[in-house]
Fold:
Amino acid sequence: MELDSLYQEVILDHYKKPHHKGLPAGEIQVHHVNPNCGDEITLSLEIKDGVFVDLTWDGVGCSISQASASIMGDLVSGKTVAQAAEVLREFTELMQSKGNILGNEEVLEDAIALAGVSKFPARVKCALLGWMAFKDAAIQNGAEI
Amino acid sequence: MSSILDVATIKRDFPIFNEEMRGGKRLVFLDSAATSQKPIQVLDAERNFYTTSNAAVHRGSYYLAERASEVFENSRQKVADFLGVAPEEIVFTKSATESLNLLAVSFERGTGSLAIGPGDEIVVSELEHHANLLPWQQLAKRTGATLKWFEMEQDGSLDLSAMDRVITSKCKIVAITHQSNVLGSVPDLAPIIAATHAVGALFVLDACQSVPHQPIDVRALGADFMVFSGHKALGPTGVGVLWGRAEILNAMEPFLYGGSMIETVTMTGATWAPAPKKFEAGVPNMAQVVGLGAALDYLSNVGMANIHLWELELTQYALDGLKAIEGVRVVGPQGIIDRGGVISFTIAGLHPHDVGQVMDQYGVAVRTGHHCAWPLIRKLGLTGTTRASFYLYNDFSDVDIFLESVVGARDYFGKR
Ligand SMILES: Cc1ncc(COP(=O)(O)O)c(C=O)c1O
Structure:
């Protein structure tokens, strides 16, 4: 079923047991919403010695938005600003590919499981929600990303 | 089962049902509360306008312009007849959203008893679509008036126990929906309209979800204004209706300024044409207005009472089916009393977006999310629902596939 290309096992695993989820009180740095469906995410992070640390997020949303945020947290934590910028760029490109590219597994790791999302235009925003919150928070912390 | 409507014949009038959905599935369209599909008669009427009658209405003195004006005004008469009102009371807009904004802007510019200012109160309800909340919320902000509202109960009805506190002598306008676009619930409007008039305020009815689906007598209801969108009533996009009592429309200020809405113009001033022209600046969406006339003809031929009864039968059948599915919860009214053909539901542990995605694999088109009524969804303590809505082209087999797809959605995630 075409659906299985969207809801890959990896995605459902992250959805059921999201990583980096749960914000310490008062830690909110950015709050993003998808006005189409009402999904929301709050996120906070720090940059220490040029490396992203202590990224946590919380939110409500569909399996795609939650899994994508979870995977994003894994991918950018412990990375330098330049490395994270590369991941963000590759992921954004994958989401805009309309199913035409598979994604660079070396850079994107688990996130290539989200490649199928790019064939469902209505869901691309779901997948990008957490990433856009990350980008915003990174910029607010002075990163050039 | 003997049928109120001959849906097989009706379906053949709607070319969209020949289209294949993902995986070659047939279309089970259950999103008519967002927009309806269009019968060939409406498409032909639009095309026919362009091929036989196209000219700017109410301007040229030549034959074709007369013909265009005649079919355009014929459509106005059809809308008036459909609602049981006078054609001078029908204003064509581009949508219900524009109709409501027209009212709000006109009141902002109003004088005398139609003026809105500090100390005045405007009343809405928690059921409202953003289109019947934001124009009033922002009007209140701009004028210093106070926005008040009726609260919603969990069953989708309105809490009328606070009537005297919500509608007071300071109230100028009460704007409430005829039927919730999210839950299908029909609020008890009669006491609200009575209270509105008792304090000398005006009542605006958002009839987007009722006019396309049931017989309506706006005068008997006692409303002062009523709005709906053509595209939800088998008509084209780009045409909406505002009905208002003639004496009020004539006392109101215009919304848009431009051609066709004037009586006289000098370099420093102007006077306005009588309603409805005063509110129809510029060359209107002529073909769409004509298309709406054809849509209302189509609905009248099928019969609004029949359509209403048919939708309630489908709704009852769907409600019974949904309630028998473990893990599914119907949100809002549980039966068909005081409701229309709209059902919102949730599946335990699943996000509506994921539910809708799986249902799509069955060819089932439903709406997911907050349905442009975010305060209502928050009040229910939810982040969204999945919504199915019925119309005259749906039948029991559509509901069967719908129910199958709901089970499919639950199991798709549940089993993995
Ligand atoms: C109750 C209600 N009011 C207003 C509107 C706005 O209609 P439109 O978007 O056609 O202007 C809708 C449409 O979804 C509605 O359901």
